[in-house]
Amino acid sequence: MWRLSIFLLFYLLKIGYGEYLQTILVQPKSVEVPVGETVLLYCTVFNQYGDVAWCKDGHCTMGRERPLYYIPRYEIIGDKQGGINSLQIRNVNLDDDGIYQCQIGRTKEAREVLSNYANLTILIPPEQISITFVPPGIVITGKEFRINCEVLNTRPAPLFTWQTPPNTQIVNISQVTTPMSNNSKLLRSISTITLLADINQHGQEIKCEATHIALNKSLISTTIIAVDYQPVVKIILKPIQMNENKEYWFECIAEGRPSITELVWKINNTILVRMPPMSDGRYPLYLNATRNMHNQYLSCSALNSAGVSEDVVILNINYSPKFQSFPTPYTIVRLGDSLKLSCTVDSNPPANILWTKNGEFVGGGSQYQIPEVHEDDYAVYACIATLGGQFTKIVASTKVLPPGPPRFYPPQSVLTSRGSEVMLKCQLEKDIEPIDSFWIFKNSTLINNMKHTIIAARDIRTIPRYEVGLIIHDVQTNDFGEYECHVTNQYGTEFVRIHLKKRSSHIFMQLAIYFGILVLLSLILFSMYLCCQQACRVDKKRTTIRRIRRVQTWLQSKPSMWIHNLAAAEKIPLTVYDINSGVTRTTLNPPVDIVECYLSMMNEQKNQHLDRPLLPPPPPPLTIRMPFCNDDDYDYDYDDQSEQIYETADPISWHIDV
């Protein structure tokens, strides 16, 4: 009791100092409103001193002034003096959905007051409902299948009801509601019913009904259940024997209810080809056989809405031999020790494996053994795999050597000139890995410096050899001589000598050779130019002869041409054909050979065209064109066989008549 008295005293003291004077009497309440309606959120304050501010989703930006000009649909209504600060929202939409709070600001007289949170839920009714079978959508007798009933763009989620055929066994009914997209307030609601398929369900109707608080009438969707059977598949054509890298024909037949939607040929799980439905139900396959397909499963799989069925054959492919393991290029063995060489080969059928020693047959099988190695056993051994001529044989060889110091390949002298950079190389057999290497020149061991760069022993992967190198920079006279390449392995040290010699200078001889080659090329090009010129002349001459013959033939068919003077009404013969000489001449004084006139005129026209290469050649000035062949064959390019004749005349008072 004494605690309550102390609390009341403390409260009265607070009021006396200006706190707890303003109190929210009417709190805003959560409400659900259909889209397009008007909503009113109440906030009534007793003894209000501060300004009101409405907050939405934590953002308090509404209510500092009345009306809210910057938010047209929002308005704070009520008697401000009476502490009524209700928020009215007209024509609500989904953007208005959120959490609202009324806040009364702090003043000197009173502290701030916050209302309860009120949820404004905008009701969005669903527009449509859809019912679908859950993929793969297969209804098979004795197996479960699922059907989805889906409603989109709604808020809140609807309530689903299912109606199934009689005697249908319902396994499960579930409902899942998710946002339409990230940060979306619209919902997607799916109800899933799981049924056990029965043949009696075939052709029966199943119904899904969705009810919503914002709908006066529920939405209904129906579908028909069809019970199908899986395809029946059989591979009816397959080769008896197959060889690699050859193409073979397979064929399978498939049928089902409903019709097959796709057929797939596969090797194990690798798809070879997808095929659409065939009207005759036959599905061929052309297969290029490879060695990797041997003993693999070739399947023909058919798909329809009821399921997948397949028929499988095991491929038996003959393929060429290939080494799976073989001896290294070098084999080191001591005298008296045993030697065991082996190689394994992959082929179908299994290959015959033979062993040779220096080219002579010594045994067969995947292994060759020598219980005790003697001096004459050091040789080159080869493993040969063959399939009796059906495929190319393969060979893997190894050189059997006793342990010992490095074995060098014969070196060659190196030629270079003063001032150049040269690299000396010594190569040794790749039998035992080198441990150390160094170079000696004039009884001095060389080291890495500005003059020499030593390259340690390295493995040349392109050929089975080790290589040691020495680079000599800025070669001078005292650098020429004999170099020793020393290499050490676990069994000892060996060296080889390489001679560095000075290359003779033949600058003038080289220049003479280059000059001779240049002169020879010039002569060849000049000869080609002369040949082309001669060929062009011969071609032009032949063209001219053909033109002359055509003109003469035409003139023989036109024994006379007349020229008219329109002013004087005169008609004068222009040409006369001489039967004895075969020449058509003009009646002008002096007589002119009409063929020569034609050729001269054509050359003149050609020269005019060359002076103006960018313009098309116009007809000769003051001329009248007369065809002796066909006008369509006319071309202004005078390099070809022109088929037009031009005769000069005065276009004002004269014209030519044939």
Automatic annotation (TrEMBL):
Residues 1-18 form the signal peptide. It is found in: Membrane. The chain crosses the membrane at residues 511-532. This is Ig-like domain-containing protein. Its main location: membrane. One of its GO terms (cellular component) is cell-cell junction. Keywords: Disulfide bond, Glycoprotein, Immunoglobulin domain, Membrane, Signal, Transmembrane, Transmembrane helix. One of its GO terms (biological process) is cell-cell adhesion. PROSITE patterns: IG_LIKE.
